[in-house]
From TrEMBL:
Gene Ontology MF, one: formate dehydrogenase (NAD+) activity
First-to-last residue of the parent protein present: 220 to 921 of 927
Any Gene Ontology CC annotation: membrane
Top-rank taxon: Bacteria
Biological source species: Albidovulum inexpectatum
Full protein name: Formate dehydrogenase major subunit
Swiss-Prot/TrEMBL keywords: 4Fe-4S, Iron, Iron-sulfur, Metal-binding, Oxidoreductase, Repeat
Family per record: In the C-terminal section; belongs to the prokaryotic molybdopterin-containing oxidoreductase family.
Length: 702
């Protein structure tokens, strides 16, 4: 790896892993990627992390899907297929046969049981054009909005709070803007592992004297650079954040002029906060009142402050309330819309921002236009030359699987998502997949989800295709094909078009640029951004105010996209976790990612360098907890919740509280989501991945 020998050509494109969106230069030799260098993209300025630099050879894996597959008559569905030898359960088919079977099955179920018996999961790992086409396929082809993707599992609650209170679901400032901040809060995020290149900017900020305030129940790596580390009790975010805001009110440190000019509902928020003094909240959140007051002063009196957050905030039944608090904190201090200020939910997947912008969500059309908005639906019906479609908000990821169990949904088209690993309470999710009468899965590997499919369609990987992606910074970037897809694998957009045609839709696109041009007709966010510009410039940030403007890295300096141009405060109350520790399950389980592996592991566990570094399923416990259990680091433990049990290797980590266990979710052999709680946040409909009651025992013990 990293063999720096001769190469034939260089292709500049975008890293396919996380939402940072680093640009890469791929060095190609004999139509294979020989090595990768960081390119001078707007988000990364030449930097890369271990995944972007060394995690590329999954695309040359012998396990890539190279031909369409159809399930053999009577072959059982489930995780009993060897991905290296799928022909035990599937037979190879021609594209014609597979597309006919895939589309024919969807049409048959729709005809027999009504179009609502068909639903779709799209992907945050495909391009903007592919996300757009996929939601169009479900809406135009079946007339409803039962289409969603993994944003539901990561930042749906953040987006709900942002749209509610500032009128937009995207970040108000790029993460690079931290260069101009005096103080920054990073809460519920572990950027050193999950957004590693963004973390380099955070570390530089701290090094030049910026006040870095880290808040997390786990002592994440960024604590070593922090001026304050608030290791609060899991699930007590609202108590802690309300206490900080209450201190700001008590000490009169809020920005009266900003509040008066740009916000509404302040008096209600202020009155609400009176119940949350730092002294009252300290025993709840576990942070001393003096520390809460010190943080309040640092943030409120700073010239410029930013707030970054991750899934430690969003993946709770109170995820939307957590985000509401962060928005209120920024607004009351006037830390939005100026250099060095802003709200930034750190996006997970490489294109989760773009897929959401493109309408791959059940309640919004492209650009977050509500499906209940008659004019917006009419506009898209005109663009698509179709009839109207449902004004009813569609079902979300977890609701769709519940509807499968109820028998209301009988067929699914799943593009690049892996719910057999990513959804909470996996036994429930897998049983739903197994019960479908017809399942079409389109992916680059025979994922755990594809093992339940009736038809598997082999897709090109990101480095094999053309398409745009949008990172956490709102930067729309050009992805360019570097190597040919293996065997008969094809670009996702072309497969979606072929399915659509078989469903009777009169689609004709010859290239993704035509899809991008169509998107621009319905998405004002893409004004002044053209395919040619992206080819030329590589990246343009939206909004872009002119054909020459590289885009606005900071927005909302002069009003918000809400009625009257004002942002709003929404007071948040304390809502406890859905499941609390008790005598049977006395500890707290929290799940997350680790540096070397990406989400369900489909790519990184087939990337030889990354898998060599982190080959084994593991969890982390405090050394004192291990001692109490009589388990040495490296030995195995059993984790059991009300939903399931797994066994895996235990590591010692002092950063984990003594009553917690941290569990990465990339490992199929010890799948974390067999244990997680499917309880949902009522607004964002996001599951509580960050909190479940768990019992930990030595493996083999009673
Ligand atoms: Fe890729 Fe994210 Fe690493 Fe950048 S930080 S190289 S986008 S995984």
């Amino acid at each position: 790896h990293g063999d720096r020998g001769a190469y034939d050509r260089t292709v500049r494109t975008v890293c396919p892993f996380c939402g940072v969106g680093c640009q890469v230069d791929l060095k190609i030799r004999d139509d294979r990627i020989a090595w990768v260098e960081g390119a001078d993209g707007p988000a990364n300025e030449g930097r890369l992390c271990v995944k972007g630099r060394f995690g590329f050879d999954y695309i040359h894996s012998p396990q890539r899907l190279t031909k369409p597959l159809i399930r053999r008559e009577g072959a059982p569905k489930g995780l009993n297929v060897d991905p290296a030898n799928p022909l035990t359960h599937f037979r190879e088919a021609t594209w014609e046969e597979a597309l006919d079977a895939a589309a024919g099955g969807l049409r048959r179920i729709a005809d027999e049981h009504g179009p609502r018996a068909v639903a779709g999961f799209g992907s945050a790992k495909c391009s903007n054009e592919e996300a757009y086409l996929f939601q169009r396929l479900i809406r135009q082809g079946f007339g409803h909005n039962n289409v969603d993707h993994c944003t539901r599992l990561c930042h749906a609650s953040s987006v709900a709070a942002l749209i509610e209170n500032i009128g937009s679901g995207a970040v108000t400032a790029t993460f690079n803007e931290i260069e101009n901040a005096d103080v920054a809060i990073v809460i519920g995020a572990n950027p050193i592992e999950n957004h590693p290149v963004a973390a380099t900017y955070f570390k530089q900020f701290a090094k030049r004297g910026g006040k870095l305030i880290v808040m997390d129940p786990r002592g994440v790596g960024l604590r070593r650079h922090a001026t304050h580390m608030l290791k609060f009790r899991p699930g007590t975010d609202v108590a802690m954040l309300n206490a900080i805001m209450a201190a700001i009110v008590e000490e009169g440190l809020y920005d009266r002029q900003y509040i008066e000019t740009w916000t509404e509902n302040w008096e209600a928020e202020k009155a609400h906060l009176a119940r949350f003094s730092p002294e009252a909240m300290a025993p709840i959140c576990g942070i001393p009142a003096e520390t809460l007051r010190a943080v309040a002063r640092d943030f409120a009196t700073a010239r410029a402050g930013m707030i970054f957050w991750g899934m430690g905030v969003s993946q709770h039944v109170h995820g939307t309330d957590n985000a509401r608090c962060l928005i209120s904190l920024a607004l009351m201090c006037g830390h939005v819309g100026r250099p060095g200020t802003g709200l930034h939910p750190l996006r997970g997947q490489n294109n989760v921002q773009g897929a959401s912008d493109a309408g791959l969500i059940p309640m919004f059309l492209p650009d977050y236009q509500s499906v209940t908005d008659d004019a917006a639906r009419a506009h898209f019906a005109e663009i698509w030359q179709s009839g109207d479609f449902s004004a009813e908000k569609g079902l979300t990821v977890t609701e769709i699987l519940d509807a499968v169990h109820a028998g209301d949904i009988r067929a699914m088209y799943i593009l690049g998502e892996n719910p057999a690993m990513s959804d909470p309470d996996l036994n429930h999710a897998r049983a739903a997949l197994a019960s479908l009468e017809h399942l079409v899965v389109q992916d680059i590997f025979l994922t755990e989800t594809a093992m339940y499919a009736d038809v598997v369609l082999p897709a090109a990987a990101f480095y094999e295709k053309s398409g745009t992606v949008t990172n956490t910074n709102r930067q729309v970037q050009m992805g360019r094909p570097a190597v040919p897809p293996p065997g008969e694998a094809r670009e996702d957009w072309a497969i979606i078009v072929d399915i659509a045609r078989r469903l009777g839709l009169n689609w004709s696109y010859a290239h993704p640029r035509e899809i991008f041009d169509e998107m621009k007709r319905g998405m004002k966010s893409l004004d002044n951004i053209t395919w040619d510009r992206l080819e030329r410039e590589g990246a343009v940030t939206y909004p872009s105010l002119s054909p020459e403007d590289p885009g606005q890295s900071i927005v909302f300096g002069s009003g918000f996209p809400r009625q009257g141009g004002r942002a709003s405060f929404t007071p948040a109350d304390i809502v406890p976790p859905a499941e609390r520790p008790d005598a049977d399950f006395p500890m707290i389980l929290t799940t997350g990612r680790q540096l070397e592996h990406w989400h369900t592991g489909a790519m990184t566990r087939r990337a030889s360098v990354l898998d060599a570094v982190e080959p084994e399923a593991n969890c982390s416990l405090h050394p004192a907890t291990l001692k109490r259990l009589g388990v040495r680091p490296g030995e195995r433990v059993r984790l059991t919740t009300r939903r399931g049990s797994i066994e895996l290797m235990a590591r010692a980590d002092r950063a984990v509280a003594e009553d917690m266990v941290f569990l990465p979710f990339a490992y199929v052999e010890a799948a974390a989501n067999l244990l997680t709680n499917p309880a949902l946040d009522p607004y964002g409909k996001i599951p509580e991945f960050k909190f479940a009651a768990v019992r930990v025992e030595p493996a083999g013990g009673s």
